[in-house]
Amino acid sequence: MVKPPTARSTIPGAGRLGLVEPTAPEGLAALGWVNTESVELLWSLSRAANADLALRTLVRLRDGLGDDWAELDSALRGDSALRGRLLGVIGASSAFADHLVANPSGWRLLRGDKGLPSRKELTDELLAAVEAEPDGSASPTNLVYRAGVTGPAAVAALRKTYRDQLMVLAAADLAAVVENEPVLPYQTVGHQLSDMADAALTAALAVAVATIYPDGPCPARLAVIAMGKCGARELNYVSDVDVVFVAEPSDASTSRLAGELMRVGSSAFFEVDAALRPEGKRGELVRTLESHVAYYKRWAKTWEFQALLKARPATGDFELGKRYVDALNPMVWTASERDDFVTDLQAMRRRVEEMVPPELREREIKLGRGSLRDVEFAVQLLQLVHGRADESLRVQSTIDALTALAAGGYVGRDDAANLTASYEFLRLIEHRLQLQKLKRTHTLPPADDEEGLRWLARAAHMRPDGRTDSLGVLNAEVKRNALRIRRLHAKLFYRPLLESVARLDKDAIRLSPDAATRQLAALGYTAPENALGHLKALTGGASRKGRIQALLLPTLLEWLSDTPDPDAGLLAYRRLSDAMVDADWYLRVLRDEGAVAQRLMIVLGSSAYIPDLLIKAPDVLRLFADGPTGPRLLDNDPDEVARGILSSSARYDDPARAVAAARSLRRHELARVASADVLGMLDVPQVCRALSSVWAAVLGAALAAVIRASEAERGEPAPASFAVIGMGRLGGGELGYGSDADVLFVCEPLPGQDEVRAVKWANTIADRVRKLLGAPSTDPPLEVDTGLRPEGRNGPVVRTLASYQAYYRQWAQAWEVQALLRAHTVAGDADLGLRFLHMIDEIRYPEGGVSETAVREIRRIKARVDSERLPRGADPATHTKLGRGGLADIEWTVQLIQLRHADEVPALHNTSTLETLDAIGAAELMSETDIELLREAWLTATKARNALVLVRGKPSDQLPGPGRVLSAVAQVAGWNSADAGEFLDNYLRVTRRAKAVVERVFGGE
């Protein structure tokens, strides 16, 4: 304990007193505090949160008191309790300093040994300020008074009286900063502030009664229900007071009464907010009890039942208020059974976090990460989940609820104690912030405001610890408590679950199976019994791996609960962990690389496509870590991957082994690309390029292996050169996860070789390549499609270059010419492939453009595609490939422009849709607005189509209706909003606008 200096001590200089203002010595002299008899006064002054502010206020008080200053000076010298209260409050709050200067005699409220006033004493004093007497309608349960003073005079009297009582509490709360007075417990402060609010509402109601019913008793029964922090009796110094009104009867008169109460209360005390009423600010201000019950039975959302956790009668008709609470309370404790319980709470939690601007998240102690709301949200969720079966949890304040949760074994006792300490610390900081200027704030001063931070630190009882000044202590404590809240926020939900299925701690209190199942269901698991089984399997036994899993799972499960499908994610994590049981590095990487674990949970809980790939290509997990320049998932270059596939497969003479090696590297690359895609690290063109490159490389590896094997079997070189021409999306470098590889096979007999034998050999090669790649596998399929060859599926699979040339010059139909626009060499003999492309250039880029007859034929074929190829039952508005404004619409429009203008615009000699759109814009063949609409639609549809495959694990073109799958597709597609309906609306809007361009440009309107 710090002792004040003795009377023999030397009076320190102003700087040593914490006084930095140049006028401080003059102020001390003006007070007469410059002699040895003033040492104790100076010592107390030096401990004020802002000694300069306290000194300035004392000088102003001396001027205001005049001859009465001597009384205050004498009292301060003889009464250490008064010194603590007065110097504590005027050193921590400029608002109360101004209040005292405006009402100098108010210092007498701070003297004496009396405790804090009771709720009745507070009510009596406020009622006396407006000369209120019991109304004729008053009864033992109906606290209705009629004020003798109304209008501005009533508001002024109430404001001063309330501010006086608020100052008394603040002074008692801050006395320990200056003197060795007892520290007021946090709950005492919250209870007192809530009692003051109840008293204030009672007085405001008295003024309202006298105003609305000046000629007689109040004819209605009105109950004022406190909600939020006031309802829980944990109110702040400066806070809105949330209320709900219940009346019998409910009519225009009672609505005016409630409205006048709110007006008076908001003018005199604090903002009275009734937005938590049914239907919010759009709903009726006052309802009958029957109307309230009907609303909550039929219309209320989950968050409204969560708000009712705090409801209690504050003033007015207490009997009616009790009936309100009794009627609605049973609904609160069954809210967790609602179908939308999880999604509503998750959406509300996201909204809370999104409300905080990014630049304030580290300073926001109410809504940011590791904040007060994290504690309150977690505690309330656990209450709602377990309170339906355990009535001991049906308490209102956060601290009482934590105590009950610990007593019931839903939270560890140490965890509850630590969370309580961190919560009370942040509430103390919040109170001190608000006291400075009596403003509603929850934001720490910026880092460069050292004066403001130091003022806050000293007001919060923080002193230098010998190594760190008060400012350093504050910063360290804020960070420590925020981190502890974040850690315990996850542990609060998941540690008890793990203790219920694993032997973690012989002294741990374990949840019952039913309680654990309820908790998992509330966290978003649709099959909680299965999830509990996975946890048991992961943490079972006494092995070191089980212990590490038990340490990891609380955080992993929290991350999983934020994904679209936590059930599938947890199952996938169990399968992956089982497959990696002999890999020592696996759990070590998850434990030591936080980014790896978090990214893995996002991927597993979002995609059915990726888990099997990761199980077979586990080394990709190492790429989830961050490297020197960013995520290692982005380190691979598609061209280098392709070269690696070709070189790796070239080591094997057996085509099956060569293709197996290529498949292995493809699997690794697909896992990498898909994971980076789900995590939002790759854009659409990057994904398409990577997928096209790896497909072409595997095709090239298979072709080379089959040719090598054929030459070994024949004992002589191949009789022909062989090239694979990519068509469709493969040729355009725009493959998606569910795309087949459209190709043409072309051969050229080598000099001296018989053409018939060479073509027969080439057909054998093509057949073996297709069979090798199409062999059954658990990997994503490798289907080679030759349906775009001349004469379609009735034509030969392989043709010579001359045969292709003869066919295209004489027989090519409009659709075949259009298909050639995307032809590009992807594998085999590069020279032959190049000669093929040069040969078809005169076909696909005809001199003068295609004829009008060909244009009409293309339009006719497109009309048939639209009417015949859309799958039965598909929604044309949301089919990503063939639907309105979908991929086919965009691509056919671009290709028609190419057919018409490529001869005169060489830049249109391009197989990529997006690059061709850029060339069309550069040539001014379409307006930039139309170009942008088509580009956005193509990117949107491609992203959605890829997301469908990633989410479902199989090819799909049809967007689902509202529900979990659409939400998952929206999230994987990178939609920022939590509302999947907005994603769908955006898709419909983008494609609708693109369709208008298509109809005008392609349709010739």
UniProtKB/TrEMBL annotation:
InterPro entries: GlnE, GlnE_rpt_dom, NT_sf, PII_UdlTrfase/GS_AdlTrfase. Keywords: ATP-binding, Magnesium, Multifunctional enzyme, Nucleotide-binding, Nucleotidyltransferase, Transferase. Its EC number is 2.7.7.89, 2.7.7.42. It holds the Pfam family GlnE. Residues 1-497 are annotated as: Adenylyl removase. SUPFAM superfamilies: Nucleotidyltransferase, Nucleotidyltransferase substrate binding subunit/domain. Its cofactor is Mg(2+). Residues 150-322, 598-838 form the Glutamate-ammonia ligase adenylyltransferase repeated domain. One of its GO terms (molecular function) is [glutamate-ammonia-ligase] adenylyltransferase activity. It catalyses: [glutamine synthetase]-L-tyrosine + ATP = [glutamine synthetase]-O(4)-(5'-adenylyl)-L-tyrosine + diphosphate; [glutamine synthetase]-O(4)-(5'-adenylyl)-L-tyrosine + phosphate = [glutamine synthetase]-L-tyrosine + ADP. Residues 347-493, 877-1001 form the PII-uridylyltransferase/Glutamine-synthetase adenylyltransferase domain. GO terms for biological process: regulation of glutamine family amino acid metabolic process. Residues 505-1005 are annotated as: Adenylyl transferase. Transmembrane segments: none annotated. Signal peptide: none annotated. CDD domains: NT_GlnE_GlnD_like (cd05401). It comes from the Bacteria. GO terms for cellular component: cytosol. Belongs to the GlnE family. Involved in the regulation of glutamine synthetase GlnA, a key enzyme in the process to assimilate ammonia. When cellular nitrogen levels are high, the C-terminal adenylyl transferase (AT) inactivates GlnA by covalent transfer of an adenylyl group from ATP to specific tyrosine residue of GlnA, thus reducing its activity. Conversely, when nitrogen levels are low, the N-terminal adenylyl removase (AR) activates GlnA by removing the adenylyl group by phosphorolysis, increasing its activity. This is Bifunctional glutamine synthetase adenylyltransferase/adenylyl-removing enzyme. It comes from Rhodococcus spelaei. The gene is glnE.
